[in-house]
Amino acid sequence: MDEELILRTNELNKTYWNGPEKTVALDDVNLKVRRGELLALYGPSGSGKTTLLFLLGGFDKPTSGRILLDGIEISNMDEQRLSTIRRNTVGFVFQNYNLVEELTVLENVRLTMMFDGKPGEEMKERTSELLDKVGLVGKERHRPSQLSAGEQQRVAIARALANRPMLVLMDEPTGNLDQDNSRAIMQLVASVMRADGVTFIIATHNLEIVQETPSRLFLKAGRVATDFISHS
Amino acid sequence: MVIDGLTSFSLLRFTAKGLARRRVRTFLTIVGLAALIFTYVTVQSLVSTLEVNLSGSVSSLGGEIDVWSKGASYPLISKIPESYAGIVKGVPGVSFATPVILALLTVDSAEALTAGVVPAQLHSLLNYSMVAGIMITSNQTGILAIGKALSATIGKGAGNSLQLNGAMYSVSGVYITNSWMDYSVIIPHVVAQQMIGMINGTSMIVATAQDSRNVNNVIGQIRTLMPMVEAFRSNETPSKVSPIFASLETIASDITAIVTLGAVLGIMNSNLNNLRERMRAFAIFKATGASYSQIIKLVLYESLLLGILGTIVGVGISYAALQFISIPIVQNVSVGIIIVPSTFLYAALLAFSVSFAASIYPALRIARVRPQEVFRFG
Questions:
Q1: What phi and psi, each to the nearest 5 degrees, are found at residue A225?
Q2: Taking CB atoms and an 8 Å limit, are B375 and A98 in contact across chains?
């Protein structure tokens, strides 16, 4: 495998059954993503973007096909090993942030580190670093409901980056944000990419983001409609 | 200590915060566990107290061995020849044996236990002290000693006269034993024989072994020598006194089992509802890398904390409440609840077990949560 590739899928299929009714969510998706790349997944609702992200993030298993993450096949991993992947290798950012309302900003950011058993001092340092990076210093003790939508999404990004993952998957990260906040989020993504060399895959409806992203993949009805990844 | 990459301290802190944030549910679960402990401790303590006091009521007569007629479930209906006392005394290893008659008779307007004893052997038989007057010292008829509680009830003391089973008696003195005997009268054995028509007979024989380690051996000899009687240790009296008493312990166990089952189901239901409400939070935990076992541990730690809190509250309330509870044994005589430390230990173990058992199924269920489904379909 090309060492530059961090992610590769081979004929990835995902089918859901609702009784006798069959829904093909992904149909022979082949994908190659280079290390440190920003890839935009673009497509209408129901095109399979979120399904693909969930498969790449180790949340779900494909009906058939392979997913190689940093050279390791994750498509048939057991749940225990997948949880390690979700903890250490892949960060996930959701459209509606998915922050734990009962926890403060600080605790939300520390979640992945806590599950990884990181020492308290290390968690403390990393959390400060991340909150500084996403511009939330001073809001450590706030609850998610006390933050604006843009701030909540920045907490979610900080959480996704906590364990220094090599790949961050973002599902409509700007879907609930206004234009200014969307730009701020994308600037944050760009700065993290530059500083840490993290690879990002962003599923989005936002054409502006797609246009500004050098690598794009267009999904339609579960298939890669424009089968190209253009590199700048 | 690190469990599966999750330090137990952070787990403990995390779950403690979670409990603090859901105050109503935490409070109700703690109250449920405390109620379970209170029920268990109270029921068990009541049984223990009854057992000790009932044992004491017969065994307060003293001695280590009781001899009754075979098949009698209560000394009041036991009848054996008085001469058996001599036979028992002749058994090697027996230091003391005396006949005792027990009968429930009317004393003035009250009904009380009447003990017919051999006056010369009273000191060996009964641990008492005199509050007023003197104890009966001879087989003289028409004289009795009265227990302090009964004396207070009927308002008769040393030097007064009263009616025992319709006959006039003079009260020689008032004794206190701090047992059921305080609500009784003592008359000479021969007088009791005549009064209840038990000529040459007695209700029971109370005996003591020379060596307390040899009691079982002595009992065996008595049984061999007199197969028509029942000989047993005095502390086995409660189960002999009445089959109802023997089943009291079973009833107590049944009550505990029912309350425990109710607590397990109730707390499990509360846990399930609580976890269902927090499904999204657990889905986020899984999405951020929590493993199956870490999710289970989160839930179990929570129940462990609830178990500890419930135990502390329950034990505290039970201990305080038992100080104020007393059981009326007979008219105007109540005994305080005997607090047995091991009961509290078992209650704590029970609360932990209930809390743990009630969280296993919800924990296994919530650990199987699929984040992608929760995030997409709620």
A1: -75, -45
A2: yes
Distance from CA of B371 to the nearest CA of A (A): 7
Instruction: State whether B10 and A114 contact (CB < 8 Å).
Output: yes
Q: Residue for token digits 């004396």?
A: B151
Q: Record the pTM.
A: 0.68
Contacts of B218 (CB under 8 A, 6+ apart): B65, B91, B92, B93, B94, B207, B209
How many CA atoms lie within 13 Å of A170's alpha carbon, on the beta-carbon side? 32
Q: ipTM value, please give it.
A: 0.89
Nearest to B70 by CA among B203, B228, B225: B228
Name the residue of chain B whose CA is nearest to A104's CA: B17
Separation between Cα atoms, residue B52 and residue B234, nearest integer Å: 11
The average pLDDT across B189-218 equals 90
Instruction: Flag if B288 and A59 touch (Cβ within 8 Å).
Output: no
Quick check: A54 contacting B, CB < 8 Å? yes
Q: Which two tokens stand for residue A126?
A: 């990393």
pLDDT of A13 over the 90 cut: yes
Task: Find the CB nearest B287 among A80, A86, A102.
Answer: A86
Interface test with A, best of B8, B288, B369 (most A CBs within 10 A): B288
Radius of gyration of chain B (CA): 30
Return the beta strands (E) in chain A as ranges.
5-18, 21-34, 38-42, 64-69, 72-73, 90-93, 167-171, 199-204, 215-220, 223-226
pLDDT tens by residue, B233-272: 877 765 666 565 667 778 888 888 998 999 899 889 888 8
Identify the sign of the CA torsion A48, A50, A52, A55. Answer: negative
Residues 6+ apart with CB under 8 A from A122: A113
B positions 18-77 inside 8 Å of A (CB): 18, 21
Give pLDDT tens digits for B102-150: 888 889 977 788 999 999 988 888 888 999 999 999 999 999 999 998 8
| CA B297/CA A18 separation, integer angstroms | 33
Tell me which residue of B341, B339, B337, B334 sits closest to B178, measured CA to CA: B334
Q: Is the pLDDT of residue B72 over 80?
A: no
Q: How far apart are CA A110 and CA A92, in angstroms?
A: 14
From the list A54, A87, A100, the residue facing B289 with the nearest CB is A87
A112-121 tens-digit pLDDT: 998 888 888 8
Task: Output B335 or A108, whichever has higher pLDDT.
Answer: A108
Q: Any chain A CB within 8 A of the CB of B373? A: no
Pairing of strands A223-226, B184-188: unpaired
Encode burial over A124-158: b for 16+ CB neighbours within 10 A, e otherwise. Answer: eebbeebbebbebeebeebbbeebeebbbbbbbbb
Note which residues in 3-22 of chain B have CB less than 8 A from chain A: 4-7, 10, 14, 17-18, 21
In this complex, the residue of A84, A86, A96 whose CB is nearest that of residue B288 is A86
Give the whole-angstrom CA distance, residue B121 versus residue B116: 11
| Distance (Å, whole) CA A67 – CA A73 | 6
Q: Would you call B359 helix, strand, or coil by DSSP?
A: helix
Q: Pick A102's closest partner by Cβ from B281, B287, B376.
A: B281
pLDDT(B284) > 90: yes
